[in-house]
């Protein structure tokens, strides 16, 4: 296939997808801008800033940025809606949430296509993001009565500030469960991507009478309102450690309920191991969405005498990865391509990743593999500035940013160790992580080592993830602050229980972990 034969599949063009979305929810979409959802109505407030697609650098639509004063008005309105919603019978809350889920299921393909254009997700991964959100909420609808028991809603709405990478399966999913639990919700649209998808989803939620607020704006301008407002009953944050630290500082003197999910360098340790075919399948899946997810594994810590066998397994996997334009086909009736990943979130992020690789090489890292954009699947002449070919580096220097922090892109680092103590030290390089894994033939030894790994979930010869439905999720060390979530823990995090209750999570005064994670 030549590059000149590729084109955007008819019906998936941005104009077509946006047009169908606006037909579904004309109240939420302006001619050249998105609207903000305040006090149950969509308003053309805020100064719009044009969003750019990472897929091909094309202009999408205007994202209006509201002022702190406008955000404060929205929070006050949400607090009033919360007081009414908190007294709504559970059966009615379930019926309205279920109706919203059904409406989003009807719009599923367009929600997924919006994600493809806005954040570059390949088609199957974009569909999975939508499906996981809806399937997960359906499970909570069935289980919410038992989870609530005598628990009551919080004193105010839940404020949600989330990253751009999983708008549906993380943000919308959490909001719908918060609503089931009796809370109104306020969500800040991620500035980097996902705004149109979230606009359509929230329009369908609002039509069913759910008390939802959707605001867009800069974090610096809105943080004081969305984090510190006394009307806010809890804060849910998903993002990096830098922004998470600022949010945490803003919470210090408020005593507010909070769930702050932050990044960590998730590591896969390989020690006294031989099942290389089994590992290869996990390595391939691990590159989904270019490792732009909180539970990706960008670090492999390998026993020295296994390095040759590890590389014999790893390098064919990384060399086989398929990446490129998520919606490009050769013939109009072709299925959308099956890709491991598309672009990273922006041209700026792509440049940052390339700079980090160059810096690591300058500090002594060994390039094991550096792919080329020439290997990508692109339309002739398209902008490829947001794409990064996969790369793998051996032994990044101690001063390299890649040694201690998560790259959030298709860049792996491999560290060689000679002892179990060194293995654990390198796996714990980021002072806490969300997940980790150990590949070891002796499972008893693997479980013993796992107890020393500073990650919330540690897989033995398999990866770990956020999990769905009943599975809890959290982090150790600096990767998480506040209440853990997932299953009944998510409901507990956004409701009031008995006086003196010790919730599961990481708090200044205590840390409490579920018995089985």
UniProtKB/TrEMBL annotation:
Which ranges carry the Aldehyde dehydrogenase domain? Answer: 51-488
**Taxonomic placement:** Bacteria, Bacillati, Actinomycetota, Actinomycetes, Geodermatophilales
Q: Which PANTHER family match?
A: ALDEHYDE DEHYDROGENASE-RELATED
Question: What keywords would UniProt list here?
Answer: Oxidoreductase
A molecular-function term among this protein's GO annotations: oxidoreductase activity, acting on the aldehyde or oxo group of donors, NAD or NADP as acceptor
Name the record gives this protein: Acyl-CoA reductase
Q: SUPFAM superfamilies annotated for this entry?
A: ALDH-like (SSF53720)
Q: Report the domain of life of the source organism.
A: Bacteria
